Structure formats: C-alpha cells, structure tokens
Amino acid sequence: MIRRRIAAGALGAAMTAAALVPVPVQAAAGQASAACSMTLGTVTVQGDHKFQRITATAPVTASPPSIGPKALFPVDSVRLATSVGWEPDPPAAMLDRGYVVMGTDLYRFSYATANGQLDPDSVQKTRVGGGWIHQTYLEQSTYYGPTTRRNAYALQGDVVTRWTVEGSVWRNKATYSGFSAVKTMTLISQTRGYDTFLANTRGGALYTIRIPVSGAPVVKKVRASTWQGFETLIAEKCGNQSTLLLAIDKDTRRGYLYAVGHANGTATVIKGLGQVGDQLAAPEDKTYFRHYPGSAESNVLLYGE
Fold it and tell me: Which DSSP string do the residues of 131-179 spell out, in sequence order?
C-alpha cells in the first residue's frame, strides 16, 4: 500500500484559510453550454433506480423522472453509489453496471433492460469486500486507450484512497491524506496519466484534485467561497474540454446547474445556469450518480481539467 501526504502543509488548513476570501461565481462561459445535458441517476429509499435528463437550456429544463428498475436493491440499504455506465447488450438489450455500498459491504452490480423492461435473470450483485463504514464518497473511472485503465476512489475522513480494478479484484491500494475539509467531490477529467476531481469544502471553497497514475495529487483552488451548501456534485462532459456541473443541496431539495470551463485554478470560468425546477431532490432520494455511455466504443471520457 502506498500512502502520501499532500506537500506544502495540510490541505485541510489551506482550504479553511482560502474559504475566508469571498469570491463570487463568475458569470462568463462559452455558449456551447446551451446544448449540453446530463442524465442524473438516483437510488431511492425503496431501492429503485430513477433517471432524469437535465439540459442546459435557458431556463434549465429537466425531464419527468423515469423510475425503474424497481426494487433493484433492498429497501433503505444503499448508502453510496458510483457512476453507472450503460452499453449495448445484443441483440436488443442495454446493460447497466456500477458499484454500490449496502450496509458495510461494497457490491458490483449489473442488469439488462430491453424496451425499458428489466430482465430479472440479468440482475447480478457481487460482493467485493467489507469494512465500508465511514466512507462518504465513492467513484469509478475507466480510461479507454491503447491501454485501458480502471480505477476506483473513496473518501474517508481526511484520506482519499485509490485502487486499480481488474474484474472483481481491487488491488494496488494507494492512500493520500490531507483532505479533511472536503465535503464531497465529482470526477471531471479522465486521461491516460491522471484523473481529476472537483471538490467542495465545508468552508465553501472549490478545488480541483488531480490524482496522477504515479506521484502525489495536485490540488488547485478554483473558488474560495459559496459552495458549502452542496452535499452532491455531478459532472458531465460539455463540448471538448468543459464540464456541465449539477450541485444539489439536499437540505433545501434544490439543484443548480453550472457551466464550467476547462479547469485552470482561479482562472476557471464558471457560469451559473440556474435552478433545476422547483425542487429537484425528492424526500425518497438516497444517493445520486452520473448515468453515461460506458462502452469502449462510445469512448465518452471527461476532460474538464
């Protein structure tokens, strides 16, 4: 196992200090954001999957929620979920797969649907491991290239952990400490050499965290305040190198959409596109995830930094 601490002092202290400097969200962004959209996935208390298409129109529009498969997981059991990738499953089905934490265990799951109907025989849940008690964030990232790279990430306390994923085996565990101020994060970039996350802090700051294949993370401040209210961040690719960002405040049940330019520290352009409907988050929502084309052929890679 590899363990590294962020250079130049504890990141938590740096984040807290930075959060004291008020910097408003800038109101400039490229016009390309108008055509961008994302599919927000939800695991409900009932164990259902729920999907909603959110589009960066003016004003922001959201499709009616589509619920199903129903009762995919036991009632009120799912605590964390990764992004869920879908791909064709010939001759006529679509296959979805991802990871969830149920209770204290991590599971890999998959299921197939045809014409919107679940094939009950296709549902698979495979236990990966236990000890998932205090983690507050979970994500997977697959980079398709000459050499495919699959990694998984988790946040627990002040530590971000990364694994290399090979089938059902998670190995090469590496830990990076100094992230105690982070409230939540979302994957915004996938390249051959690194994955990058956008993270907000309890003090309100916004940072990028680049985690290279080898070496220590590179952390850059993007904004210093106003982001503390969001418990969930979901990102989707917008254009060639920008990001459509959904920020959800579960206390008020509201979601807000942002167009984020290619991340470049405090020079990053962020435009608030508006609130998503009246109340995006429903009382029965447990956790949220990105739903995206996940096949090698689709090659939908995030490139926000």
Answer: --SS--EEEEEEE-SSS-EEEEEEEETTEEEEEEEETTEEEEEEEEE--
Number of folded domains that form the chain: 1
pLDDT at 233 over 80: yes
- First-residue to last-residue Cα distance in the chain: 27
Q: For residue 254, give its domain range.
A: 37-293
Q: List phi, psi (to 5°) of 40.
A: -90, 125
Q: Which residues contact 26 (CB under 8 A, 6 or more apart)?
A: 269, 270, 271
Asked, for residue 8, whether it belongs to a domain, the answer is: no
Q: Residue 158 and residue 144: Cα distance in Å, rounded?
A: 30
pLDDT tens per residue, range 97-120: 999 999 999 999 999 999 889 999
Residue 214, in any domain of the structure: yes
pLDDT at 92: 81
Per the domain annotation, does 216 fall within a domain?
yes
Instruction: Tell me the C-alpha distance between 137 and 25, whole Å.
Output: 25
Burial of 211 (0-12, 13-18, 19+ CB in 10 A): buried
* CATH code for the domain of 246: 2.115.10
pTM score: 0.89
